[in-house]
Write a structure and sequence with these properties.
The complex is a heterodimer of chains A (351) and B (119). By secondary structure, chain A is mainly alpha-helical. Helices cover 67% and strands 2% of the residues of chain A. Chain A has a two-stranded antiparallel ribbon. In chain A, helix 8 packs antiparallel against helix 10. Chain B folds into 2 domains: 33 residues; 67 residues, Methane Monooxygenase Hydroxylase, Chain G, domain 1 (Up-down Bundle). In chain B, helix 2 packs antiparallel against helix 3. Classes of the chains: A mainly alpha (351), B mainly alpha (119). Chains A and B meet through helix 1, helix 2, helix 3, helix 4 and helix 5 of A and helix 1, helix 2 and helix 3 of B.
Amino acid sequence: MTETIAFLIEKSIVAAGFFVVVLGVVAYATLGERKIAGYFQDRHGPNRAGPWGILQPIADGVKFFAKEDFIPDRADKILFVIAPTFTFMAAGFIMAVIPFGDRLTIFGREVLLQIADINIGILYILAISGLGAYGIVIGGWASNNKYSLMGGIRTSGQLISYEIAMGLAIVALLLDHGTMSLRTIVMQQSGAIWHWSVFTHPIGFMIFLVSAFAEASRMPFDLPEAENELVGGYHTEYSSMKFGLFQFGEYTHMTLASGLIITLYFGGWSIPFVPIPENPGILWGLLTFCAFWAKTLLMMFVFMWVRWTLPRFRYDQLMNLGWKKLIPLGIFNIVLTAGLLLVFQSMGLTN
Amino acid sequence: MLPRDFIPVLITFLVVGGFAWITLLATHLLGPKRYSPEKMDTYECGVDYRDDARSRFSIKFYLVGVLFVIFDLEVVFMYPWAVNFRELGLFGFASMGVFLVILTIGLLYEWKKGALEWE
């Protein structure tokens, strides 16, 4: 009984702690994005709230809370309120299975730096990220505004198309790893740097990366809110923190998608050439935690870099890329990976 | 009874969901309330509102929806195969090969039929 209570307390602390860390990263990602945009365009970006604009995310948050929270008369009241929480929750739930680090020993208790190491981690992620489309579609529909509705419908088409490509890329990865537990996948990539899946699955990585951009509806795939065509897309009618939750959800999705790319293709929390110790102390846990976030922040920089480099797709180009290029390429990649694995197996090589 | 591994997932649901709903409640209580009929009107770039937004839209979106259901089911079908691929060996490769050929023929068919064209 005490063991169960200790387990519950431990997991609650871990979950709340990681949520706070993710929220902090997300809040500062908004500042980082604007700073990076500023430097790309040869200007300073936000620099009034605190030194180097460091208090900007807090100022933004306070402003969101102080704004009027209204529901347009023609909107569907209940769905209008549910939609933003749905988007945010679908993005945030992914956090549950991402391995943020290895283990650490504290107060004589071995704590896993991952909220839940379930054996169907990848299925869980696909299921939850599939829910993300609902928040946007419900929001677009409930607003009863033509721009919102168009944004919502476009989103549903985009998200479901790229989900297939993403699924196909993951199948090729699973062929190699033979497990759906994200922790085991990270462990298999530890050791030498060439154990990282990005070197063994380059085609799958490219498909996954493009799909991840589309799923997070980041530039060049930000058609759901294409501001020069659709005003604000699905969140045209939203104000105050309801809009804030949509925005937050988008950045949370980007953060955790980066974390997922790192976990699947860049060795997650493992540090290259450093073996995993038998009895980890606090230091080892913190090191792996920092390694994970260092890689993830670098990946998030790539997301922002691409945003300020590439122009937006047209909708037919977007669908062509998804259905006519990525899906055939994904099927080809599965056959190629499976064939190569069979050849290596018959030659007696394990990897 | 829920397996032990999944209890932390439920805790995450509570933490994230709780944050989202408390934020919404707080903004509802903290923000000002000033009603005006113009503000509550639907935004149409300044033009007077006309016609309900929920009218007809392109059939293409339905088509994509149907194709998605078919393809996504087939991808889900592949997961258990992929995880057990090393034990299944050549037999597994051949049987999934047949399945993939049928899947590719389906994709080519809809391609030729123009279901993937957006003009």
